[in-house]
Design goal:
The complex is a heterodimer. Chain A folds into 2 domains: 40 residues, no CATH class; 237 residues, MetI-like (MetI-like fold). Chain A is 71% helix and 3% strand. Chain A is built from 13 helices and 2 strands, in the order αββαααααααααααα. Chain A has a two-stranded antiparallel ribbon with strand order 1-2. In chain A, helix 1 packs across helix 13, helix 3 packs across helix 10 and helix 10 runs antiparallel to helix 13. Chain B is mainly alpha-helical. Chain B folds into 2 domains: 46 residues, no CATH class; 218 residues, MetI-like fold (Orthogonal Bundle). The interface between A and B is large, with 117 and 116 residues.
Chain lengths: 308, 279
Amino acid sequence: MSNDTGKSVRQRPALHPGRSSDLLVRWSFMFPAILLLVTMLAYPIFYTIDISFSRFDIASFGAGEWVGWENYIEVIDDYRFWESLKVTMIYLVIALPLQVVLGFGIAYLINAEWSGRGVIRALFIIPMVVAPVVAGGMWRMILDPLWGIMNYWLGFLGIGPLDWFGDPNLAMAAIIIIDTWRWTPFIVLIATAALLALPKDVFEAAKIDGANWWSTLWSVAVPLLVPVIAATFVIRWLGAVKMFDIVLAATYGGPGKATNVINLFIYEEAFRSLRFAESAAMAVIVLVLTMVLTGIFLRASRKLEELF
Amino acid sequence: MPRRSANTLGHKLRVAGGVAISLVFLFPIYWMILTSFKDQVDIFTTPPKFFFTPTLAAYVEYMQRADIVNRLINTIIVATGAGLLSIVVGTMAGYALARIRLRGAATFGLLILLSRGVPPIALAVPMFLVARKFGLIDKHITLILAYSTFLIPYVMWLMRSFFMGLPRELEESAMIDGCSRYGAFFKIILPISLPGVLSTLIFSMILAWEELLFALVLTNRHASTIPVAIAGIAGDTVNGANWAALTAVGTITVIPVVIFALMVQKWLIKGLAEGATKG
């Protein structure tokens, strides 16, 4: 360990890999995390893969005999699986860009210099820490077709009454509204920091050159922000693919299967229908899809960073 | 764009827009809290009531139901347990990733980062099966361990970037002065990192406090948490959603979290910004 580091003052212990006893000490910092994550994260993933290639044995309540790709074939033939993937895609394709654009737009607004700026920024933390399941529940009340305050207000605009949870498209809209309400503040906070970190002199220069607001935005601000926007998108993507709580509380996948996102579908198949083998196969497919898409997004964001 | 202009019309519009939009975002929470103090007659009425005689009926009724009190206690136990476990394990690992040269540690770090893409449902199925086999369903410890799967990676990455921002000379001089590696970490690094560690702990506890899927799958009665209760109330299609119950339990869930989050807001914003720019 350090029994002789005191002797030589020149030695830089932190930078040099030491002797074997030191090796043990150094790994000991990492060991608890490795132990926990291997048993609680890696092992379950391998077990899911194991189940997905087996017949589920009800007697032992575990993986039974090996059946090869049978479960996967069954899942791929199941139109409900594809519908659920489609629903998830629609949600992601609309919600993610919407939230990123809104987030940066709102950050621009609340970054205006005035005495209340800090308070406003702090207030944006509040929706971010509301439990998603609570968010789903309370918006269900706000959007209630009969008594909800949203339809009451929309009435003044001559809209409605809208059957938010009875119409498939409106139900999807409701899910996206709730999700956007819950997650945009998160992007606002990241964007606020990013906007504050922008070099001021570049904007001064653009102003002196007579650039107007719009062209300053597109040719100065956006290129500077591209790395942060890309990173924000990836972070938000990693959260959004886990969409479950809000849908469960607000629509429970309905009406019909209009908002039945993939995580809810797999949950239902596993824990209501007890089709564990098929659920495991679906979970593995989703896991692979997520990893591949995350890889592509990470690559794309690197590329974007190089381009700008 | 950051303009210096103090009092132009554009600036005023921007301030007004910022205030308006923050009110829009806060309204749903305000409305939930307001509704929790209404009686049934004031809830189901048109136009919606902003002024009414407040009542604690919903709180009294639902707090008396043992399962809400029990669930609150469970949620506190699980959030505290998972938060503490993850902060200890994650902070040490984050320190190792930031400061200690270990063969293979970088690969491990990358795997941890990738793990954030794992859908929780892919973990919930095997966890349920294994927990059932070993009689671990409906135990606090099971939920605490399940939560550590997403909390440890979260703590590791936040603390890693925090430790990378500290000057290296800190532990170097400590170790030259005869401190062991543990000594340098526990006596020098940890004390000066305490605000960061505490904020990360609080935010980890918030994430555990709000978790639904694992709680739904791994508990049924004794260790069940508040989010499960809310999902139950919101999803009660037989009696229709009980809004008084929903808003009262929702308010109880949200208030402590909001207070804690506002306490650590400075660090939170900083951590978010760093996570996005360096991650």
